[in-house]
Write a structure and sequence with these properties.
With about 270 residues, the chain is of the alpha/beta class. Helix content is about 40%, strand content about 20%. Helix 6 links the parallel strand 6 and strand 7. The radius of gyration is 22 Å and the shape is globular.
């Protein structure tokens, strides 16, 4: 009996060590959305601490590029701030790839301005007209007599596609818009231009810019989850088929309580 009592903790220690080294020497390649990138980055750092020897490499470039990388086999996981398109599914199936979505967080797309801009609230209709180039001066919407500089994401961005659907209702962005390749680039552009307006994921908000309410509703975790904030969306990681091995283990970590706490700390909205 005494022998078995001594054996039990030793056995538990063995399995604990085994769990930490089971994936040693393995790697995961993640590509895609710059919105999802901060979540993937902190999750990857935490996961690699739990699994020494595992290597996770990350890159941005937009949701469309991430899905392309999954389809051509150069990525194990595609980060996407939008759902996959029918044409992407068809292309994937032609190549024997079967994309499976994994919802990892909720996000709100926030229209942003320079902190000196007095405008604090815009309707969906006003935002649409601004981005179509039909409202061109801040004085038309309660601001100063200054021309509006429109800053938008490029067409490879999932954030752009959600904005196009929920705000523009498929209308075209003005040809005068300054196109940026990432959320971070939009923040930089707006922080340096008192006349500009842009939009970013909630997790990219900082003191160098100011968020604008939409239809009188501020973008928060509560309003995004409840649906009160109209420009909200889920964030995804896509895999080729149902994941196995290290890829499955990593995604399980992202959607676990520990992983979702990292989502919250990054300024996005956890699933629970």
């Amino acid at each position: 009996m005494k022998k078995s009592k001594r054996f039990l903790p030793a056995c538990l220690m063995f399995f604990s060590l085994l769990a930490g080294t089971a994936f040693a020497g393995e790697s995961i390649v993640i590509n895609g959305s710059t919105t999802v990138l901060p979540v993937a980055q902190v999750a990857a750092e935490a996961y690699m601490k739990l699994h020494p020897g595992v290597n996770i490499s990350l890159s941005g470039g937009g949701s469309g590029n991430g899905i392309k990388a999954l389809i051509d086999g150069s990525a194990n996981i595609a980060n996407s701030s939008r759902f996959i398109k029918d044409k992407e599914v068809s292309l994937a199936q032609e190549k024997g790839v079967y994309p499976v979505p994994h919802r990892v967080a909720i996000d709100a797309i926030v229209p942003i301005v320079h902190p000196d801009n007095p405008v604090t609230d815009l309707s969906i209709e006003q935002l649409s007209l601004i981005y179509q180039g039909k409202i061109t001066n801040w004085k038309e919407i309660g601001g100063k007599d200054l021309q509006i500089v429109v800053v938008s994401r490029d067409t490879s961005s999932g954030t752009y596609e959600v904005w196009e659907e929920k705000v523009l209702h498929k209308a075209k962005v003005t040809a005068k818009a300054q196109l940026q390749a990432s959320n971070g680039a939009v923040v930089q552009a707006i922080s340096k231009n008192r006349y500009a307006i842009g939009y970013i994921g909630l997790g990219y908000m900082n003191d160098s810019i100011r968020g604008i309410k939409v239809n009188g509703i501020e973008a928060t975790a509560a309003t995004a989850l409840s649906g009160a904030y109209l420009v909200a969306r889920p964030l995804f990681m896509f895999t080729n088929g149902w994941p196995t091995g290290i890829v499955s283990d990593f995604i399980t970590f992202v959607v676990s309580r520990d992983g979702q706490e990292l989502v919250r700390k990054e300024g996005f909205v956890p699933l629970f």
